[in-house]
Amino acid sequence: MDSWVIGMMLGVSVFMGSIAVVGLMWAIKKGQFDDQEKFLNSALFDDVDELNDAARLEAKKKEAMRKKEYKPE
Amino acid sequence: MSEKVKCDHCHLEFSKDVMIEDDGHYFCCNGCQGVFHLLSEQGLDGFYKKLGNEKLAPPSQQYEDSSNFNAPAFYERFVTLNKDGFSEVSLVIEGIHCSACVWLNEKALINMDGVIATNINYTNNKAKIVWDDDVVKLSEIIDMIRAIGYNAYPYDASLQEEKANKERKDYYLRIAVAIFATMNMMTIMVAQYAGYFSGISESVKHILNLGEWALSTPVLFYCGWPFFKGMYYGLKTKTVNMDTLVATGSLLTYIYSIYITITRSGEAYFDSVTMIVTFVLVGKFLEALSKKSIADTLDIMSQHLVSDVKVIENEKIVTKSVGDVSVGDIIVVSAGDRVALDGEVRDGSGNFDESSLTGESDPIFKEQGDTIVSGTVSIDADLKYVATKDYANSTMSNIVSLLENAMNNKPKIQQLANKLSEYFSSTILLFSLFTFIGWYLYSSNFEHSFMIAIAVIVIACPCALALATPVATLVGLSIASKRGILFKEAAQLETMAKADVLAVDKTGTITQGRPEVVSQKRYEDFDDALLYALILHSKHPIAKAVANYIYSESLPCLEVDALKNIASQGITAMYKGKMLAGGNAKLMKTIGIDVVSESDNSEFFFAYGGKLLAKYELFDLPREDAKEAIHKIQKMGITVVMLTGDHQRSAKKVAEMVGIKQFEAELTPEQKADYINELHSKKKTVVMAGDGVNDILALASSDIAIAMGNGSDIAIEVSDVVLLNDTFSSLYDSFRISRRTFGMIKQNLGLSLVYNGITIPLAMAGYVIPLVAAISMSISSLLVVGNSMRIKLGYKD
Questions:
Q1: Same domain, yes or no, for A39 and A66?
Q2: Distance in Å from the first CA to the final CA of chain B
């Protein structure tokens, strides 16, 4: 076996692992683990509704930001 | 009796005929009915599905006017503008029971126009709400929360908490990277070490080294950044600390390993870099965790403070914020209220529980002209009093500010390991420098001398030294926690091991905190059921103790009438036309019976039809194991002192019973703290054990504060050690375990120093080949770990 195979395998596995770590870090930064109970409960109970709510909230925020920017003084 | 039905909102059960029937639904009150309809209208009835069988508290319908929340003063204090220009407030939401409640609150708020984001923390019921102030006002948001059956009040998400949270998050991020890299590094190391012994081609080894290099880089520069920062601040204040050694050690090892990798000569040590950084980082994180609890303590303390009071203004009762009350205002106190400001009783009378200040368990009777102190609780008093001090100068807020002070200036005994590592760090750095100079002068070969100098640092790298304390404390902590002793911070084991004085509170700590009948004297034969029927209705601790004492299952239930509680005296009732009376000597005198009160103990007399039938003596007995444990603690060479707010006589009696020679009685919370500070000035290390609010100042001033498990929340928050099983023998155990652990730490440090004493000269002489370095590093760490396990000997469970 050529050593480049080892190098490639090592590289790929570390790269894939780091994607997971970056994902985890993103989630920590966004505060997804701030509330342990809620985080576990949402894994159990969150449904399409909750996802829709989250999306709606994002849209609402964008809309509010837009309005703020174009506010006539 | 009619059948019971569940309220369709709060799920509490009541008999059917008192319920409000509404279209096939049943409600216990208008509040529940209102909320139920509101939720249906808003399409939020999914809440009930999520709620399942959980019960809720019915919504209250009396709230202060929510327009207060729009006042500029309120905005200034609690509302902040975030970077997008939206308003943000932190609230504590009352009435959250389960995840369904969180869901409902979030959903209801999200549905409101202008609310940008909500985040409710289920664990501590704190919520952060972001909204657009141009669209919706805060008062409307609060109204919505109230409309769905909850209440909200703001809290100052003071910088302190924010900062602690941010710091914690920062550590999570760094630790996530460090652990990921270390785990991957381990798999590569298996290949490396296997290859070392069974042969490995140079090119494969090179690839593995490159992989390690890639993994260790983020660990050193991202995860290890706090150490570089620590080193920088250390250098600024001209001190060499553990950070300096970790930072220089790992950085030089890293550079050395890069050199090895590029030149393909010898062994790289990238694994040491990641391991050291990860290990020490986790230790630092544990330290940061304990800081968070201080912020929480102050938040909890502020919950103990009253925020508004009822004041008489223009002959009307108005609710005012405590800050707005001025000296001379008349304040109304009802049964169950906590007093917010110091004052003097103007009208009315009743009993107060002053145990939060004095620790004394007996209720204190107050009438016109008596002073009334903030922080005490009215048991049955309904009275009016004049404020003699404003809020900022009242006793309770004074205690809070003293507490904040004490917690921020808590004495820290310098830890042995830190002290040692400081000398160790500077010595090693000097050695390495001398080695380099010496070899350079001797051989004039820069590269060779540099490598040897680095080898000195690498081999001395604080693996064993860094392990010495944490491993021993970890073992100590786990033994302690198995016995219900929780140390909040690892370093406290060491501080506790060095303690010279143990100060203990009396009521609730040495004693059980509730009076018990110690003797009974029956003057005439009577039926216990009579006495039981009388005192069953009293909430007074003495009556309760007597009731417990005479209770048996065969007691018939007698009906008495005209029951009357006489404040500070006792209780009377009528049975078959004759008067039953139970209480103290004063009550007996009132009803015309002459009794002699001569005992040190609390007395309870019982009379029926004007005849004295019995006398009970009660005493707050010491805990069963107190005497033995105190004796053992004294034998360890620790002076035991009892501090109490109770009067001299009862303090002396208890002290004698448990064998304490030194005691101080009639101390205020401040005096207790002063006493401890005085001990500090005599260079004593003080452990304080207490349970109540009256002890918190002393607890916060002591080196180690121990709270008994059933103590008040605030005492547990302030303390460093919590005894869950609430016994004195676990207090003794905590001393024993900490001393044993500390002994192990010293042994471990000794071991690692001996190891370094042997290997460093070898390294300086240039004899350390990589294999020896690798093996000896592992052996020294194993020795330290193995030695620490010995703490477990003698603790079988």
A1: yes
A2: 54
